Amino acid sequence: MSQVKINARDIIVEVESATPDTFLRVENLANVVINKSENEETVDTTDYDSQGVYEQEVMQRGASMELEGMAKKDRLTGSLQPGRARVEEMAGEDKVGYDSLGRVRFRHPMDTEWKIWNCTFSLGEQGGGSNDKTSWGATITKSGPTEFEDVA
């Protein structure tokens, strides 16, 4: 078995559209970071029998994904690309409670399965300096267990 290093830039991130089980690619990403321990909670289980050595157990698992890129709009209509528009829609101020939940799926091209998260969406800071392009970013926070689906 030959092991190869994986290009971070090759990750494919898709967000579910308003039509269930239909996904849109989140376009023009410059940085994707997955934190598999976000929202993890532990409990200290150290007692006298631990003989001065710290012990713990994980009580809750979590994960998040940070997406970053430059803001990009159609120069004639001002509309966002479809995947980014859906992320921004899901992060809208009217998306609270059950309506705040959506789904994303992601994988690298050599993966045979999609990882699918039920999740919430939050937009990051946007802007920049006088010689910058406007930044765009979003945080996707997993809610519940990861699901898996074979790549079609």
TrEMBL record:
Stretches the record annotates as Disordered: 128-152
Biased composition range(s): Polar residues: 131-144
Superkingdom of origin organism: Bacteria
Protein's UniProt name: Phage tail protein
Species per Swiss-Prot/TrEMBL record: Acrocarpospora macrocephala
